[in-house]
Amino acid sequence: MSNSDIETNAPQAGMSRRGLLQAAGAGALAVSGLAIAGLPAAAQEGTTMTTDWDKVFPKSETVDHRKVTFKNRYGLTLVGDLYSPQGRSGERLPAIAVSGPFGAVKEQSSGLYAQTMAERGFVTLAFDPSYTGESSGEPRNIASPDINTEDFSAAVDFLGLEPGVDRERIGIIGVCGWGGMALNAAAIDKRIRAVVASTMYDISRVSAHGYNDSVTLEQRTQMLEQMGEQRWKDAEAGVPAYGPVSNELKGGEPQFMVDYHDYYMTPRGYHPRAVNSGNAWAMTSGFSFANMPLMTYIAEISPRPALLIHGENAHSRYLSETAYAAAAEPKELMIIPGASHTDLYDQMDIIPFDKLQSFFEQHLV
Prior knowledge:
The chain has 365 residues and is an alpha/beta fold.
């Protein structure tokens, strides 16, 4: 997944900062106190919006960019980056909303996807999910299968009102944990004409059953009991407790955890607003994910097309393979030879942008 949160809860990796996957290792996640450790001051204050170019990728010379805000159905204000191909202002173009990875911000992978697809002729919107990044929502660094699915539909609302967008030609891309959210959004929101899930994580499945569905009923029960007890503590304190700082290496971690660190904690992908860049999720953030499976209605994306892209060597590959099996036609699973999970975050020679372009050109008609 795009977050070491969920990853860290793999049985061989120990506990993650994120309480939602305590189950993958049997024991209680240690409470790290009631302070919001690692959260930037701006994030603690709510919605912010910088006008600086603070992305982890260079600005394209062939794309126009502006910051935008829009509200979701729950009244939360989302902040996004709108990218448009230059010299096309008189046209109504197809559009793509992009988000992910789970625990990342729009200045990272989703922004790179969005800007690159704008270079290829689409109006694109990369946005921060509710409760994270520059978007609003208190307390900070909370996730929800319902609200985060709604965030994609809110992005479609926004794009459909843009003068330069043809609202009948809107697609979405979800990266990592937001790949699962994108598939869920496409199943319910019939305005979404085509969906891509890249290096997809099903947060609800891993939250409920651990990696490779390895968590027993006894372990799952223990995890839910622990989160219930944490809710008492949070209610008494009036503020949520946060898990351990994300993506700190102590030695002996599996390779996928090293890969996460190499993206989120180095100049390659570090961003101070990202949960995964040394910040933390609320310990009860996974409470509802453990009981609300995202893939229940994936077959109802049909007859609209779904494209799933995954790395051959990704530890998370099985999540795309089983989602593909559950989906109905038209569908496609593209396995990238030799690629790891995080290669599809930002490696321009590995992410199949030609395929993304041809897929959306074919289906956003």
